[in-house]
Amino acid sequence: MIETKRCLIRKFKKSDYKSLFILDSNQEVHKYLYNNPITTFQDSKFYIQKLLNDYQDYGVGRLYVSDKKTKEFIGWAGLKYNTLKLNDRINYFDIGYRILPEFWNKGFATELSLEIIDYYKKNFESISSIIGITRHDNIASIRVLNKCGLIFCNDFTHNNIKLKWFELT
User: Fold this and answer.
1) CA-CA distance, 156 to 29, in Å (whole number)?
2) Checking DSSP bridges between strand 151-158 and strand 130-135, what pairing results, if any?
3) How confident is the model at residue 30 (pLDDT cuts 50, 70, 90)?
4) Residue 56 CB neighbours (<10 A)
5) What is the DSSP letter of 109?
6) What is the chain's alpha carbon radius of gyration, rounded to the nearest angstrom?
7) Would you list the DSSP string of 18-63?
8) Are the beta carbons of 131 and 94 closer than 8 angstroms?
9) Partners of 77 in the beta sheet?
């Protein structure tokens, strides 16, 4: 378990599918993603199984985040070993976060990302760089990546969506 000032961070469990459904079925949450929210509990169960596989295969994955005081689900954050070719790169670790709208603009994404980056730097010597990818118009995520020390490298397009590539080495 990883802790921040306000949050508890842990691996997902199969039983977390309802919390993940609430997050990933939310249209507002998907505004800066691919506008493809999930529609069934089965979708969230499938996603959690992929996360469990990532933990086993790569030692990293998106992590369940809850409020330290209330234990309320906030969203997820974490590293992912990405095998999808983007920006002419493949096989890299990317930092990500997805948070329920009621927790937006309160510093959670930055708090979580800083702690996760620090944790992996200290505990996984094999991670030499961390990538951050966001839509070109997602000003809040651009700020988070900058605050976490990631440096803007270039703009690129994927599936007709303009994206920005950041890197921390």
Assistant:
1) 22
2) unpaired
3) confident
4) 9
5) H
6) 15
7) HHHHHHHT-TTTTTTTTS----SHHHHHHHHHHHHHHHHHHS--EE
8) yes
9) 63, 97
List the CATH number of the domain containing 25: 3.40.630.30
**Of 95, 76, 77, 97, nearest to 22 (Cα)?**
76
Take residue 162 and report the two structure tokens written for it: 């303009």
pTM of the model: 0.93
Q: Per-residue pLDDT tens for 44-76? A: 999 999 999 999 999 999 999 999 999 999 999
Q: How many angstroms separate the CA atoms of 103 and 80, rounded?
A: 22
List the structure tokens of 101: 């709208």
Nearest-angstrom CA–CA distance, 169 and 105: 27
Q: What is the per-residue pLDDT across 90-122, written as a single tens digit (0 to 9) for each? A: 999 999 999 999 999 999 999 999 999 999 989
Domain range for 58: 2-168
Output the six-digit token pair for 53: 């596989």
